[in-house]
Known about the structure:
Blueprint: H1 7-10, H2 16-24, E1 30-31, H3 44-62, H4 72-81, E2 94-97, H5 100-111, E3 117-121, H6 126-132, E4 138-142, E5 144-145, E6 148-149, H7 151-157, E7 168-170, H8 184-197, E8 201-204, E9 228-233, E10 245-248, H9 254-265, H10 270-280, H11 284-310, E11 317-318, E12 326-330, H12 337-346, E13 349-350, E14 352-353, E15 366-370, H13 376-393
Parallel strand pairs: 1-13, 3-4, 3-7, 7-8, 8-9
Antiparallel strand pairs: 2-10, 5-6, 9-10, 11-12, 12-15, 14-15
Helix pairs in contact: 3-10, 5-6, 5-9, 7-8, 11-13, 12-13
Amino acid sequence: MNWKLAQRADKMNPSVIREILKVTELPGIISFAGGLPSPQTFPIDAMREASERVLRDDGKAALQYAASEGYAPLREWVAQDLIKQGMKVSPDQVLITTGSQQGLDLVAKILIDAGSRILVETPTYLGALQAFTPMEPIAVGVNSDDHGVDAADLRAKVGTGADKARFVYLLPNFQNPTGRTMTEERRAAVAQVAIDTGLPIIEDNPYGDLWFDAPPAPSLSSRHPEGSVYLGSFSKILAPGLRLGYLVAPKALYPKLLQAKQAADLHTPSFNQRVVAEVLKDGFIERHVPTIRALYKQQCEAMLAALDREMAGLGLSWNRPVGGMFLWVQLPKGMKAVPLLEKAVEKGVAFVPGFAFYAGDANESTLRLSFVTATVDQINTGMAALAAAIRESL
Length: 394
């Protein structure tokens, strides 16, 4: 049987990260590759207790089909929680999604036509590129630095008429893959470009609660509310296995996103939504998230100290994140990350080459390191092994 595939199917590619994660399953590999939250942070006892209460008190409804918009108490919690992002939204602007990755898929389906232009940071989240690509856009990278996307280059690339970009996709807080955070001044400049040009913003914020010492500036969506879709997730603050996220959209756009959601999966699992709402209702998150921040800060500091110690004199550079799960490394000139990965794996350590995170011309001398699933001892051992691989590659 010869299946005739749709043209969009040819554009679907396996996640480079998930392919690399297969390597990390080998015995003895210390992995800085996956963007996985630390399992130490999963609130297992709270989830167990909440599950029992949901099944005891409302089990039939929890196991039944439900509204596509999502469980009303959970939507209300999201709307209230977003006040800390400077946002004023009503629960009927909140759509519960099956992970924030589904939010990206829904946005792609309703906003992208084949050949339309979209703008992304340089580099950007690989999962977003995977969600957008089947809709056959022309993805254009906007110049970016340690402060975030460059507002002047953004303005220059918005375009006009039929060539105008459909949206710009941004991760302002502790970005994946770089770990950088957009400054308040840069947010103001970027939002002003969007307002001046009528450019929609897709703001993805799965890591915003994972700050170490101080919260980031208010969201871009708070500055451009009628022109923004905001994506959030419970994966990084509770557990990724729940596959629970949400999007917030202007009321004019919400109905089409809801229709796309209905076509995709009818609704996000009712049981998961009710369990999370039960966990959240007594202020649990305010007690729980600080423990995640403290752990991740300790691990980040250990990795930065190991980089300072092990990579001295090797010609590398890296950033110093103030939250999140990642940091970004620039290798010495001429050294490529993919061949280096092979040497590193031989020495028992893995990372993600940076080339996969670019919409256009890729910098093949970059790599992403995740510090949250390794112990301090593993970080020290892994960084020493990576440094040895780099010395052999010079």
